[in-house]
Amino acid sequence: MPGLSITIDDREVQEALGRLVIQAEDQTQAMREIGAAIDTHTMLGFRAGQAPDGTPWAPLSPVTVARRRQGSSSPLRDTGVLQNSFNARADRTSVEYGTADKRAGTHQFGARQGAYGRSSRGGPIPWGDIPARPMIPTGELPESLKREMLRILTRHLSP
């Protein structure tokens, strides 16, 4: 019985897929680079005084400016402690980015006067409303950061 037989030599494809699987199993270096990209994006936001989406941070109240050293009016940059507290932790499959600074959540999301109770003297904590000044993305990533992450992953997963 006549027939047709086709043999496909897919060794190169199989080898490339094998390399891809090995590369995909441990993406620690790519995750470190993504962490660095997030950090760069965050630090640029601090410098510009803006949220990850480019929205300017609310200005400081005159009372806050008056209470700061040398009358600094740059939001979240009086001492640099908060700004310099951010870090990235990468492992084989993910990256965690954030800060242990206990003030970060209040600044990221804002707080109403008295939201944290009262001081020992009976005054509200915080003593006034604090507007949200987002420092790191919490929802949709900015397009520029998405592109950078994709570039990093593409480079690391290329055979």
Provide a descriptive summary of the structure in words:
The chain is mainly alpha-helical and 159 residues long. It has one domain (26-157). The protein has helices at 11-25, 28-48, 62-67, 104-109, 143-157, and strands at residues 87-90, 95-98. The chain has a two-stranded antiparallel ribbon. A hairpin with a 4-residue loop joins strand 1 (87-90) and strand 2 (95-98). It is elongated, with a radius of gyration of 24 Å. The two termini are 43 Å apart. The model has no long low-confidence stretch (mean pLDDT 86).
Strand content: 5-15%
Q: Quickly give the structural class.
A: mainly alpha
* Rounded mean pLDDT score: 86
The main sheet orders its strands as 1-2
> What integer value in Å does the Rg equal?
24 Å
What is the helix tally?
5
End-to-end Cα distance, whole Å, is 43 Å
Helix content range of the residues, please? Answer: 25-40%
| Low-pLDDT regions | none
Q: Order of SSEs, N→C?
A: HHHEEHH
The profile of the biggest β sheet is: 2 strands, antiparallel
The global form is: elongated
How many separate structural domains? Answer: 1
Number of strands: 2
